[in-house]
Design the sequence.
């Protein structure tokens, strides 16, 4: 073979060998890269699996199995008690005091369960809401009234914010105060306080009836009669009427038109009683309440017109159009008569108890008023003397 051809052949073989080596190197590098990527993926999944197993077993150690036979009866009982306690606190808060703002309170109180049937044994209660300045001078009478009827009533006190007095633990008024704000007579703050009382009372799902009272109010019958009267009533008790006089229609502000017209305008007693449906409607009102607050100012008194007007216009079927709290306006003036110790006689109280005619659940009745006001603190002793016999209170 000629030397020239041999040289060409050698160069070709060397070139082909280099190509094979390069190809082999590239192939090996590709395999190594794939192995590296696959290793990273496997390692990541392994870490997640180990982490999940650690969390799983640590959670099992932290929270024993619900149906473990190794649980002691005490532990099972404690778990059951904690669950029941949580539900109880939700449906019936034990403490009246809380840190909610008025806006938060109204929102919370306006909640209505979507399931009608209660998941607990519900005994309807009457919420007694006292709008007061401070102490209740007639508290011993009310203590006598409530005695022996625990579980059928709730008590709420709205006082001046600076009032911090707490009665003894033996009193039904012990720790019954709610977070309160300043109230001015004739101003919208009076309605604020009433709505605040209603909202706090609505937090207890067993409260079915809500009655507003003052520190000068007294009950005219024993607890059983009043409880049955309210619980069995088909309607709420809120007085409302059309008063054509300047102290009635004359207080209407044309700026409330067209939402509230002059023909809608009503007047009534501040002291009302409401069932749960009406109470929910009142605390949920965010449309008409601001309208009254902005346009019903003295000589327009919001506590005499807001509820009578709004309830008559939007929920007329919920009220009997009368109050159950007797007040004497016969002496004239801006305030009702105040009764003193010499006024308290059996005949005087009996006239308030049975001296009127009204309609109750569609039938005629002589029991029209369950409460009365305004009684001076010096009436306490004569009231305590007549209460056991006349009012049927347990001594």
Sequence:
């Amino acid at each position: 073979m000629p030397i020239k051809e041999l040289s060409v052949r050698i160069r070709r073989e060397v070139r082909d060998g280099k190509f094979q080596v390069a190809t082999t190197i590239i192939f090996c590098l590709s395999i190594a890269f794939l192995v590296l990527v696959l290793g990273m993926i496997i390692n990541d999944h392994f870490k997640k699996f180990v982490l999940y197993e650690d969390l799983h077993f640590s959670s099992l150690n932290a929270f024993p199995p619900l149906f473990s036979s190794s649980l002691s009866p005490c532990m099972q009982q404690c778990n059951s008690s904690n669950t029941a306690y949580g539900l109880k606190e939700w449906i019936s808060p034990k403490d009246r005091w809380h840190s909610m703002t008025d806006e938060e309170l109204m929102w919370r109180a306006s909640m209505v369960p979507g399931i009608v049937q209660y998941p607990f044994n519900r005994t309807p209660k009457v919420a007694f809401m006292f709008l007061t300045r401070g102490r209740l001078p007639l508290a011993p009478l009310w203590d006598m009234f409530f005695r022996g009827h625990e579980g059928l009533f709730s008590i709420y006190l709205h006082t001046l914010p600076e009032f911090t007095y707490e009665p003894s633990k033996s009193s039904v008024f012990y720790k019954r105060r709610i977070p309160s704000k300043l109230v001015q007579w004739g101003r919208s703050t009076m309605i604020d306080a009433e709505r605040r009382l209603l909202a706090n009372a609505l937090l207890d799902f067993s409260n079915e009836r809500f009655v507003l009272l003052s520190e000068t109010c007294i009950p005219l019958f024993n607890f059983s009669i009043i409880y049955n009267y309210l619980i069995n009533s088909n309607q709420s008790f809120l007085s409302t009427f059309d008063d054509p006089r300047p102290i009635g229609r004359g207080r209407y502000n044309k700026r409330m038109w067209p939402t509230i017209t002059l023909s809608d305008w009503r007047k009534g007693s501040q002291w009302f009683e409401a069932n749960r449906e009406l109470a929910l409607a009142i605390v949920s009102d965010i449309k008409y309440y601001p309208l009254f607050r902005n346009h019903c100012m003295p000589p327009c008194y919001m506590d005499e017109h807001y509820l009578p007007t709004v309830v008559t216009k939007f929920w007329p079927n919920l009220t009997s159009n009368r109050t159950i709290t007797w007040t004497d306006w016969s002496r004239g003036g801006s305030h009702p008569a105040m009764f003193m110790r010499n006024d308290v006689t059996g005949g005087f109280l009996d006239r308030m108890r049975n001296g009127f005619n009204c309609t109750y659940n569609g039938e005629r009745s002589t029991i029209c008023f369950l409460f009365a006001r305004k009684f001076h603190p010096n009436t306490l002793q004569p009231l305590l003397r007549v209460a056991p016999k006349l009012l049927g209170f347990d001594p």
About this structure: The chain has a mean pLDDT of 84. Residues 185 and 301 are 9 Å apart (CA to CA).
